[in-house]
Amino acid sequence: MRRTQLYLDDELWQALHEQAERARTTISELMRQAARERYLGNLDRRKAAMQAFVGIRKDRPEFRDAVGYVRRLRQGSRIERLGKS
C-alpha cells in the first residue's frame, strides 16, 4: 500500500467525516472504496453481470442442435457466406 495526500474542500471533508462516523470507518477507507469502485469497478457487480450474460441465447431454436448449426455455418465457401448477408 502507498501513502498519498489529498486536499479536500471543507464541504467534501465534512460529508466524508459524517459518512465515516455513520459507517464506523475512516475517511481514508471511504476514499479507497470510492477509488476502487470508480477505477477498478465493483467486482461483485461485474461478476453478476457476466453470470447473467452466460447462456442468454441457449433457448433459441437454431442452437438446439449445436453441431448441426455449426455445420450449416461452415457449408460452402467463406466468400459465399459473406455474400448471403
Q: How large is the count of helical segments?
A: 5
Q: pLDDT below 50 for ≥5 consecutive residues: which ranges?
A: none
Q: How would you characterize the largest beta sheet?
A: none
Could you say how many structural domains there are in total? 1
Which geometry do the CA atoms define?
elongated
Mean pLDDT equals 86
Element-by-element helix/strand order? HHHHH
By helix and strand content, what is the structural category?
mainly alpha
Strand content: under 5%
Which key features would you list for this structure?
mainly alpha, 64% helix, elongated
Strand and helix layout:
Blueprint: H1 10-23, H2 27-40, H3 43-53, H4 66-74, H5 78-83
Outline the structure in words.
The protein has one domain. The mean pLDDT is 86. The chain is 64% helix and 0% strand. The longest helix is centred in the N-terminal third of the chain and has 14 residues, at 10-23. It has helices at 10-23, 27-40, 43-53, 66-74, 78-83. The chain has 85 residues and is mainly alpha-helical. The protein is built from 5 helices and no strands.
Give a short synopsis of this structure.
The protein has helices spanning 10-23, 27-40, 43-53, 66-74, 78-83.
